[in-house]
Amino acid sequence: MNYLAALDFIISLGFGLILPLFPLYVEFLGGGTEEVGLEVGILFSSFVLTRALLATPFGNFSDRIGRKRLILIGSFLYAFLAVLFTVPSTWVGLIFVRSLQGVASAMVWPVSEALVIDSCPVDRRGASLGKIVMSSNLGMVLGPFVGGGLFLFAQDFLNMDDMGSYKFPFYITAVVSLIGAVLVWMYVTDARRPQDQRRKISFRKLLRPDGMDKPSLRNLNLLYANAAIEGFSFASIGPMMVLFLSLKFNLTADFAAFVIGIGMGLGALVAYPSGRLADRIGKKKMFVLGGYIAFIGTMLIPFDWGIVVTVDYALIATIVFLGMRSMAFQVASPALRAMQADAVPSEIRGRLIGMLESMNNIGSVVGGVAGGFLWDLFSPREFGLFAQDGAMIPFLVSGVMGLFTVSLVLLFVRERRLASSVG
Questions:
Q1: CATH level 2 (architecture), domain 2-187+205-412
Q2: Which of 272, 275, 277, 354 could connect to 334 by a Cys-Cys bridge, CB 3.0–4.6 Å?
Q3: pLDDT in tens, 107-123
Q4: Contact status, residue 332 vs residue 133, Cβ threshold 8 Å
């Protein structure tokens, strides 16, 4: 468990190093200025598209051959692709590499989550998944800080040009990803024997697996729908956050990364304790509470708080709502993952968790492109409320979609109470 947490931290650190730099890297490689939001959305969606297509097959494969092998291959592939990001000379070339990174992600994230669930008692799933989520988020939190610092270090101390300064964090990402792969190879073991399942599983069987009662099937299908809508709502603004901070407050790449890191850092603090609390008071309660607060915070982020306070305090207000959104989401995330684990039989856990991941990523594919399109369409416009108020449209759409899916879970999902055991 601890080594998987360390792996998630290292892989997320490498991922977070480069994430805030992507929108500005796209602009630097000639992505344009009038449609850069759509281009960043396409770049994001190319990653989640391949991840969506492959998460279920790789989850199925892990049921048959074991989790460790796929996690190991995906970790080494992450390291290789980080270097490959420095090769394209245009933003279009990044799409190909980003798509391959989605393949690596499909090998690592849903499969490692299934391995964590394999390894812990059912009455501690919230806490165990909270530890994994916390480790992953700590990596994502430190990543933007380190990525922005590496960009400045390459520029100011290594005297690299702009191109070299953008590429330097990718090389460091390769190193940390390689360390994660070595950790998997040396210390991670499978918690259960692979299943001898040679026949193919149809899509219908994924929606209605054998051996599940009607309440469990209803829960599973509602969680599929929740995953897709949640993926849409978060992806529709995630890639746009740096562009929003740059437009609203004229922040540079390094300072925008710093601001995003602060917001995510606040969220990382609550993932593990909220997972433990979910085991005690109920997973559904924690998910609904965190979900509502997260999406309300999403809609509050883009408002022009400068109309009531000074510009400096307006930026602070934005950071507060970023933190509110992040903390609430990390209250909801371990509880949601534990509910998903409770809903699926252990012998087909890999493929069903992969299916849940695929549904989330399908929503993210649509959301990334839709968010970029909405940004390009509305961010230059003003509706007379306050300056640059068109930039709030993607945030409002994201918030409304998110509140809808949380309400679906609140009204229709029935939480299962399972006896304490591993499996």
A1: Up-down Bundle (1.20)
A2: 275
A3: 887 788 778 777 777 66
A4: no
